[in-house]
From TrEMBL:
The gene is purE. The keyword Isomerase applies. GO terms for molecular function: 5-(carboxyamino)imidazole ribonucleotide mutase activity. Substrate binds at S12, D15, R42. InterPro entries: PurE_ClassI, PurE_dom, PurE_prokaryotes. Keywords: Isomerase, Purine biosynthesis. This is N5-carboxyaminoimidazole ribonucleotide mutase.
């Protein structure tokens, strides 16, 4: 394990069921991270403090998840030179379209790398790929992860071809 290199922040603990996807994949890839709650709207002073001290605390990349009027990722990006990955959280009223557009439509000069709605797992993988530039051990974990993913899909394709469509469908377990 490395020192803590990835920061995960979320606007509310209600985002945790989604944001744990980033934490889980970072654990799998053996990347150390910190995880906390920061809100641009509700805790603006904490937001400034978190973003402005992030680099000095050793972070290389920040994942920020928020829903609705999701200003958190953009505000973090405005306050640090570190790359920021935004996770739009699915909302009950607008299905996360509001979160997605709030995060992705940043003005030129202040980018937030935005993943799909609720796809915190991809944010974790992307963060690991960024820190892997500095840490060859993490790069090796990512290559292993991708290879396992490939093997898993190839095994399914083989099973589908062996069993045939109807039998495969009958055995299929919904995720
Ligand atoms: N979008 C933001 C910000 C922010 O951008 O600063 N702070 C909280 N939130 C979001 O509000 C939603 C509802 O939060 P509650 O469930 O606490 O009411 C969450 O998805 C959170 O990310």
């Amino acid at each position: 394990m490395t020192d803590i290199v990835v920061g995960i922040v979320m606007g509310s603990d209600s985002d945790l069921p989604v944001m744990q996807g980033a934490a889980t994949v970072l654990e799998t890839l053996q990347v150390n991270f910190e995880l906390t709650i920061v809100s641009a709207h509700r805790t603006p002073k904490r937001l400034f403090d978190y973003a402005q001290t992030a680099e000095a605390r050793g972070l290389s990349v920040i994942i920020a998840g928020a829903g609705g009027a999701a200003h958190l990722p953009g505000m973090v990006a405005s306050l640090t030179c570190l790359p920021v990955i935004g996770v739009p959280i699915k909302t009950s009223t607008l299905n996360g379209q509001d979160s997605l557009l709030s995060i992705v439509q940043m003005p030129a000069g202040v980018p937030v790398a935005t993943v799909a709605i609720n796809n915190a797992q991809n944010a974790g993988i992307l963060a690991a790929q960024i820190v892997a530039i500095k840490f060859p051990a993490i790069r090796a974990q990512i290559c292993r992860y991708k290879s396992e993913l490939e093997q898993m899909v190839l095994a399914k394709a083989e099973k589908l071809e062996q069993l045939g469509y109807s039998q495969y469908l009958a055995d299929y377990q919904l995720p």
